[in-house]
Structure formats: C-alpha cells, structure tokens
Amino acid sequence: MGIVVQKYGGSSVADAAGIKRVAQRIVSTKKAGHQVVVVVSAMGDTTDDLIELANEVSPLPPARELDMLLTAGERISMAVLAMAIQSVGHEARSFTGSQAGVITDAEHGRAKIIDVTPGRIQAAIDEGAIAIVAGFQGVSQTTKDITTLGRGGSDTTAVALAVALKADVCEIYSDVDGIFTADPRIEPRARKVPRISYEETLEMAAQGAKILHLRCVEYARRYDMPIHVRSSFSEKEGTWVVKAEDVAQEDSMEAAIITGVAHDRSQAKITVVGVPDKPGEAAALFRAVADAQINIDMIVQNVSAAATGRTDISFTLPSGEGQTAMTALSRIQEAVGFESLQYDDSVGKVSIVGAGMSSSPGISARFFEALSEAGVNIEMISTSEIRVSVVVAETQVEDAVNAAHATFELGSDEIEAVVYGGTGR
Ligand code: ASP
Ligand code: MG
Known about the structure:
The protein is α/β, with parallel strands linked by helices. The protein contains 13 helices and 18 strands. The longest helix is centred in the N-terminal third of the chain and has 25 residues, at 63-87.
C-alpha cells in the first residue's frame, strides 16, 4: 500500500472536537493499510488573530519575527493533533516545516520552496508512525531563518511533501465537498465537478475561485501529482485534479465545454484619460506600475480621437493595490502628459473556464448573449485559450455568474453544495 498525504485546513481543525474527528479519519486511513503523512493548517482563524496581535504591538512588524509568530499557529495544530491520535492508540509524531525538510528561499511572508528533504518523515512512517507536519512554513537555505509560504500556503506544503515522498495522492480537506461549477453561495445550483485538469484549476483559482492555493496547483502540475479535494465533514468523493488527458478519458462520453464559472469582487479599474497617442506612452505608464510591484490584469486602449490625438487606457488590478498604483501614475503625469486619472473600485470579474472551448466556436458569443439578456453591461474583456473573462459592475457580478451558469447548463437539479464548517479553509 502506498503513501497518502492528507492536508486539513483551519476549519477542519477549528476546535478540540474537530481535531478528534480529523484524528479518527487519519486513523481509519492508516487502518486501511496506507502510510499516512498529514499536513495541518492553524486552528480556525488563528493566523488572522496572530497578525492582529502583531499589528497591535508594531505598526510594521518585522518580516522575520512575523514569520516566526505565524508558524506558531500550525505548530499548535500539529502537536494537538498528534496527541489526539495517540490517545486513540496510534503512534503519531509532529514535525515543524523545518524538521520535515521544507527548504525555502529567504523571502519572508512569501517564501518559495526550493527543496524538500523529508528524511525524518520517511523514517517515521517506515517505523509505522503517522507523521504530522506543520503547513505553510519552512526554513531558509541561506539565512536558516524560519519562513512562511504566504496565506493559504499549507496546500503547497502538502503537495510538495507528496511529490518528495512519491505519494499516490495528495488529499486536501476543507469544509466543502470539492470544486464546484460556481461558488455555491451565489449559485445555489452549482454542481460538484468530479474531475478537472490542472490547467482549468489554475485558471479558476487565478480568476478568484477560492479553491486551492495557486502555487500548490502549479507544483502538482509540474510533477503530475493528483490532488483529491474533499470535505473532512463527509465521506463523499470530492473532486480529482489531474492531468488533462485523464479528465478526457474519464468523461469521453460527452466532454463539457465549460467546466466552471469563477468570480472575483476584489478588482479595481484605473483609467488614464487623455494619453498622447504616440510611441512609448503606454510603456511609460506600465513601467511605473510595474516598478511599484503591482500585478495588473486586463488592459484596454480606446481608439484615439483623431481630433485630439489622445486616447484613454484602462486596466484592472487588485483593489488592495489601487492606492499604490494611483500614486505611481500621478508621479509621471507631467512627464507623460496625460490629462487625468480615474479610479473605480466597484468592479468585479466573471470568468468562464473550460478546456473544451479551444475546440468549440461561439463560446464567447453565447456568454455575451447571456450577459446581455441578464442586463449586464460588459466593461472589459480578456481571454486565454481556455478562459473568457469580463469586467462588470460589482453589483452585477452575481447576475453575471447566474447567467453564465445557466446558459452553459452547468446547474444541477438538486442542491448539491453543502458548506459544513466556518469561514473557509
Ligand atoms: N494558516 C495559514 C493561513 O491562514 C496557512 C494555511 O491555512 O494554509 O493562511
Ligand atoms: Mg471591487
């Protein structure tokens, strides 16, 4: 029997009862004959509480100390979970990220895993113990300081360990039954997707679907590690994230063209008004934004009015970075010679994602028709090979999701989605 890596999110281990429930589940996997490695997140909202605490004592907590503090959340979970497992008669040993061999670069708060050397984990499971690893943390190869991988990083710890241990599967447990065709909170008829490709999952996650940490999916894709996303509150089969060929095989009867609808309310739009229409102007604008370390998403440049020789350029970005971008652009206003800046925080993005769309014409037309019938105005459009995204007014995000979901017949006849736990993973 092979190695199974299981990751439990914060809502699954929110309190003592949750930890006992998870312990039972881990033990039954072990009893079924698997070697089990478990990655845990901090209990409930612990990470948020720790960040708040840091902010109460310091306006700008030093990154090294903040990382040291935040890793404590996962260490609490791992020790308590190991105790719970031992109390029901099975051997369990907890390990920090550093002890588990998670080696990272030195970027505090967003460290990247550069190597995994899980010797102690392998030894523990070979001796018949269950290994419990603190998620979201590692140790810097150069500074030897403790690092964190960024919010939601435990998913990435789990996949990285699964790859290094050559596990059969990485199971990621949260409080929903899997990946859905849309967020069940705004689309009650959302259906659970049985299988989805790494590429589609990446697009869904990048477009705002809160399913898996983006980097964990990139990692899984690179090493072809199957992820099983499921709920720790039910025994139901969840969603398998696998390579595209394996999705096609399974669904060869009738491959769905659209796999899901993602939405993101945390977008803002900046319009640079009256940009002189000559070479180098767009370059100057986007260089200023890039130098401020801001990731922009969609860009639209209007045709310039012949009379004025000026044009408007709009782009979207995470609204959290709006202030920084506006400041960076204001600074170059005179040099570039544009007229003014407009900032609109009340926009959202709705995307349809599906590997099948690259081979079926008319998908965008159908999407836009559905939006128009629902009275939703499109402000911007962008596409990839397997995605079409639109920017709409934030107040119309829900209508847009519902319209897309209906027109591509993604809905189920019964209510499938149950959210068992608290506030997320
Ligand atoms: N506890 C960390 C967070 O809340 C990491 C994780 O949950 O994956 O972001
Ligand atoms: Mg917004």
